[in-house]
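Risk register update: the risk of archive-format incompatibility is retired. Evidence:
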Amino acid sequence: PEPDVVHELIGHVPMLADPTFAEMVEAIGVASLGADEKQIWHLTKVYWYTVEFGVVREGGDIKAFGSGILSSFGELEHMAQGRAELAPFDPFQPQPKMSYKDGYQKRYFVLDSFQTGLDQLRQFAATLKPGVSAR
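Archived output:
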């Protein structure tokens, strides 16, 4: 049932304690200011594949940070056992269809680091609305 308290408390709250991750989430929100409908839909998918179902490279490992992964044992196991494609995160590219009703994710987008993801999101945001930026 909504709101999903487990999803919020296990997934989003701990991750928002990381300042760079929090800035990354803010960058998506700032990018949406004044964006047109098509850009908003693209940003929605970027949010889905980062904040909800993102993974990050840490050393030689791929680690989950997306709330949809962290709050679901099955999704976490699916990701950790390599049952989905891992693709580089690129906010400039068209994002695939979002779905949670089709079972687990078929693809996860990998950030090289939160800082790299933040830099990519800021660069993308700058192409949407010149003069509006996330700090």
